[in-house]
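quick one before i forget lol
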Amino acid sequence: MDNFKALQKRAARVQRDWETEKYRTLWRRIGSGIIDSAILFLPLILLILLVKLFSIPGKYLAVMTISQLFSIMFSIYFVGLTGTTPGKWLFGMKVVLVADEEEKIGLQNSSLRELLNATSLLFYLAMIVTYSLQGRLAESDRIVQNNFHDVLWDVATVVGLVIGYSEILTAIFNKKRRAFHDFIAKTVVVKSEMRHRILSGSLIVVSFGIYFVYFQVYNLLKN
């Protein structure tokens, strides 16, 4: 009888450990983020070259706005339809509903997860419209590049910092490691067995190569 109770306690402890462990995804999120960001950088390299080629005024804001839009649509599409992104899939993670972890979240909830990113996008769009109406769109390049004090840019910067810190803090101080956007969308990221370890490692190396090319091309905007 005592042995049976001990086995029950051990089984319960193993279950609790697994329930906690499956939400510990920090290093996997970093790895998947590196790969997903590299995927997003590929069209942005072409975008920057086009912006530079046609000498578009407000080039920094144009690149920031479109890159933010790419990021939002990328996440809504992949997470909404498949429950994961290419990076998350490689690292054995998926986004599920916190109330039912067997459910895919769908496009509605994946859109809710991007509300915070959409806030930043709206600020970029507001700056483009405002500076255009004021005839200051070309001046926005100096504001963004040199961090000149400007009300819109300062507010956008503060909002971005608040969003960033709120995401980090909420993810740290709850057992399921849910970031602020997870609370908004009622979702949680869980892990399973990691897939394609060799491929994942290889793609991270390739991703850093893409990063290098991206930042070299991005520097063209300064000239």
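fyi The first helix runs from residue 2 to 21.
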